[in-house]
Amino acid sequence: MRIFILIFFLSITNFSFAQVLKVNTMSIEGLGHSINGYSLNYDRIFHSNDKYWVSNNTGVSYRTNQYAPQRNWSISNTVNIVFGQKKGHLELGTGLGVIKNLSHDYRSMTRALLLGRLGYRYQRPMGGFFMRASLTPNAMLYDNPKCIGWCDLDLIVHFIGVSLGYSF
After folding, report:
1. Tens of pLDDT, residues 128-152
2. From residue 9, how far is each of 1, 2, 12 by CA, in Å?
3. Closest among 95, 167, 154 to 124, alpha carbons compared
4. Which of 24, 45, 151, 156 is the residue whose CA sits 20 to 30 A from 89?
5. pTM of the entire structure?
6. What is the 8-class DSSP label of residue 16?
7. Shortest CA distance to 27 belongs to which of 66, 67, 68, 80?
């Protein structure tokens, strides 16, 4: 009977170690895909095996302009493939982003971006501290020629991004 109980608990323990990958991550990204200089991100791993992970990352950002009565928000959604088995990973991804500028007189300008990601991702499979440093090239898909507020701020495109967060 003791051997049966021992085998039962060892099998449960082994089963729980096989599912130790933490699939949710919350992070703050500086620069990267946000026109506003930062974004709050949620990342979820929806497929994993022993060679790679596939995740979906959604980021949201909002900012008001202190020099012109203007509000800017952006949202990005990328699908990433993460290669590696330990803590450090190569991350490749692509997605779409939308940038919306709204002035005080409710005129707006909307732009769509094709997003890319190539970088290093530090994420332990069992959760905890998360860090990402990546190149984030953007390609304009639609540009509204009407300019609202500070036009030069609308042309800023970030090609690097650093994220810090927590996996759970």
Report:
1. 999 999 999 887 776 555 655 444 4
2. 13, 11, 5
3. 167
4. 156
5. 0.77
6. H
7. 80
User: For the segment 106-124, what is each residue's pLDDT rounded down to a tens digit?
Assistant: 677 777 888 899 999 999 8
Distance CA 64, CA 154 (A): 13
**Cβ atoms of residues 60 and 97 within 8 Å:** no
Domains of the chain (ranges; CATH) run 22-167 (2.40.160.20)
Eight-state DSSP code of residue 5: H
* 3-state secondary structure at position 124: coil
In degrees, rounded to 5, the angle at the alpha carbon of residue 152 between the alpha carbons of residues 151 and 157 is 115
**Spatial distance between the Cα atoms of 39 and 29, rounded to a whole number of angstroms:** 5
| Of 114, 110, 112, residue with least CA distance to 101 | 110
Phi then psi for residue 11, to 5 deg, are -70, -40
